[in-house]
Each structure stands twice: as structure tokens, then as C-alpha cells.
Amino acid sequence: MRFSIVRDLLKAWIVTAGVVAASLVWQPTTAMAQGDQYTMQEVVDAGHSFFGSTSGALAKVIEKAFAQYGLPNGYILGQEGSGAFIAGLTYGEGTLYTKNAGQHPAFWQGPSLGIDYGGNGSRTMMLVYNLPSVGSLYSRFGGVSGSAYVVAGVGMTALKNNNMVLVPIRTGVGARLGVNVGYLKLTQSSTWNPF
Fold it and tell me: Do 18 and 113 belong to one domain?
């Protein structure tokens, strides 16, 4: 009799401890995921101060990115230069901003190949989606750079690496026309090697 009471009390304690532990683990994870993401207003404000006068078109492009991909958990502000004559190269540098891991340097370079001609220099904002850690940003992201959404000189493309998505938003001087296939390689430090 005594043994069954102790056993029942032990089972009740284990079930209660399991429920409490599950609720402690579940709530912070959900709160962290929501708290680590940027709202559209936060991204538009950062873009307005960075890009300046292209604010109306920038807001429309950011709205399109949010409608398509949701809330980013990071963004990069920087500048880049690119040029192409069938084969092309892109080089850029900036700063990654996150709510939970602070600011980090970001450099990007990448080759492209396709029907592509011209050159440009641009200010760039990259929205970063599904970033599990800062270290995972430093890898290759592939996509079709001609798959763009453009409003009044502000353009957007999307690049992927597994579950992470980068959405570069660019505005600048120069002209570069065409469709190309390529990738961007993001690194922690500057390098001339696009491969």
C-alpha cells in the first residue's frame, strides 16, 4: 500500500515537472523568435536614413519583400560595385545588424555568367531571413540576378542558401542590363577572390 502511494506521488511529480519544464523551454523560444525579427517600420526607417532621397520607391520594394518573405531577423547596410561583359564580378562591404547578436562586418563578392553588360555602383540593403547564427551568414548564396523587382530605380533580388534567404535591395548609379546566373559569397573579412 505504501509503495503504491509513493509510486503515484512520484508519477505526479514527474508529470508536473515535465509540464513545467516544457512550458519554460517553449515560451522563451517563441518570444526570442518574435523579438529577434525586424518590423517593416524598423527596416523602412533604417533604409530611409541610409538611402536618403529614394524613400518612396524604397518603401514599396521593402513592402514587396515583406509580403513575399515575412519578417527578417537581420539586415546588412553597405555599398557595392559591379561590372559585366558576359561574365561579371561584384564586390561589396557593409555591416550586419541583428537584434540579438549586435553588429558584425560583412563583405561580399561573386561571379556571374549570362547575357549581361555594364557596370554600376550602389548602396545596398540586404534583408536576411532565417539566420540561425552570425557565422552561418558567411557562405555562398545563389540565385538568378535577373529575377528582379524594380520600382523607380530601387531593385530587389533573392538569393538562397539552404533555408536562409538574402534579399539585396539596391539603388545606385550606372547601368547594367541582362540576366545572369551567379552567387554571392559573404565573408567576415575583405578578399579579392570571388570564388
Answer: no
